[in-house]
Amino acid sequence: MSEEKKDVKEEKLSLREVLGINRRIFGICAKARPGFFVLRFTVRILEALSPYVTLYCSARFLDELTAARRPEILTRWVLLILGLTAVFRIAGSLLKRMEDAQTATESYWINWIYGKKALELDFAQADDARCSDQLTQILQTSNYGGRGIWQFTYMLPALAGILFKVAGGIALSVSLFTLPVKPEYQGLPLLKAGLGLAVGGILAVLILSPLLAAKRVKAELATTEAGRSGNRFYFFFGFQIFTEEKRALDIRMYRQDLYALEMMEKGNSWGLHGVFQKLQKGLAGVIGGITAGLSQCMMGCIYLYVCLKAWYGAFGVGSVTQYVGALLSLAGGISELLSMGAQMRGNTVFLKQVLEYLDIPNEMYQGSLTVEKRSDRQYGVEFKDVSFRYPGSREYALRHVNMRFNVGEKLAVVGQNGSGKTTFIKLLCRLYDPTEGEILLNGINIRKYDYQEYMSIFSVVFQDFQLLDAPLGENIAAGLSCDEDRAVECLEKAGLGEWYRTKADKGLKTWLCQRENADKGIQVSGGEGQKLAIARSLYRDAPFLVLDEPTAALDPLSEYEVYTRLNEIVEDKTAIYISHRLSSCRFCDEIAVFHEGQVIEKGSHEGLLSQGGKYAELWNAQARYYQQ
Ligand code: ADP
Which of 81, 151, 252, 577 is 20 to 30 Å from 370 at the Cα level? Predict the structure, then answer.
């Protein structure tokens, strides 16, 4: 048995915990989609109450019809029944449409709760497999049976509806017990026996139903792991294996489709012989049968009592229909209430997992200082004796790095693979915090700044940048609104002017395609993509421009073009380049040479060459293989 399976089975939450967890989840959902619950609650409550209105009015109508038969009273009741039914139906139908519309967008805002948290996580945590595993588990559990927030958003309003159903049932049936029979029949043993049976039946249902419901929920909880793995299994053998492009050859060659069909038949926990169907056919079926039998017995007892009281003159025929209808509904409501209670309790185990994920503390992004907006771009950043170890690693990736960025200058960062260049950029952008030492912006530790504000002074082209499957302009602006002149200017600067004029037939509206939408617009090559990423970083117009291997995908001519036009591209920004190609560094004001996590040399191209140190060694090594 896996750890996780044990966890879910053995998790026992007290009533207080259950209430606390559900209350917090309610707050989170209500904040994510205000109005959603108001609508759902209203619809469920209307659905619960409308039958009672008709029931009550019809009973009064029948009582009048079988007694005094006054035409004006009869007319009043008929009009009231028609009017109220119409109001309930029209309102119910309108609200239900609105609810359906809300339901259709539910997955969007629930996913956003997780997506937002994933973005708010410290980068180090987002990078950590345990964190992503936590989220995967939540999503997988949700995918099968909607356990977690999905079930909660359905169950809580349903619970409110059930409570109203029960309350309405009680309100309309109380008088059954209080209205006296004719004086001559009072105290009849038959009536007492009828009352005893009715009360006994209700008590039996009240006591046994929750026990049975809890047993069923417990059995369902035990299938959690089978559900999760079954979901993966089902997706792979039931779908992915047939459609995945990379499997197209193998599946034909080895007839893996036959194997997949066999697996679906035999190994699938969702199949006819899997745990879920066994549960449905076995325990769940038996429990369902016993519960239905119990409530039928209870109904029988109640019917008997109603008939006895009517027989001995406590009320007329109209009230009989009222009591029978109300008690029927009350009995249904009580068993729904008990089963819903057990289900909500069971679902709380998954809500707890959701909260555990949402509660992962964000330690890095706690700063609150605003970053001063400076039109002169005088942002001074300094590394002061910075050392850094990745979480869980014993080796230092950076050691005692001291560096000051001179505003408006171009700095090249060079060094062999693994020397710490990318780590240096990650710390600069505060994706990680230094293990020792500090990084200052205008003399203040960058931890003290609001994270988003601090980020806004950087524009980075990462090595593994990603473009969007969206129009060119929206890609450049990273948003729906795009300043067209500025976007075209950035494309020109990034060396895409000619490409834009000849290839982008719909201008900035030209769609950039990834695989899925190949016929919708144009495909971009690796080199074009890299230049587009540069254009996007220029559009952001941040005072710091960081380019991590910005020419890796470019052909030698384009690479030369980018570097010779560096001044034009960068303008007055402070620029930092990471590059393997030392020839590109000649265009920079200063070069920092990284080696085993340390900055071992710093200076201009000529100065470093004449020093005859590491830089000269790297330069000479490259000169041997490439024409510099
Ligand atoms: P460069 O960019 O110069 O190639 P990096 O900054 O990527 O070097 O890596 C510096 C050192 O940190 C290397 O020893 C590398 O293995 C290690 N490192 C990089 N990323 C991680 C990580 N996420 N977790 C642990 N170690 C890492």
Answer: 577
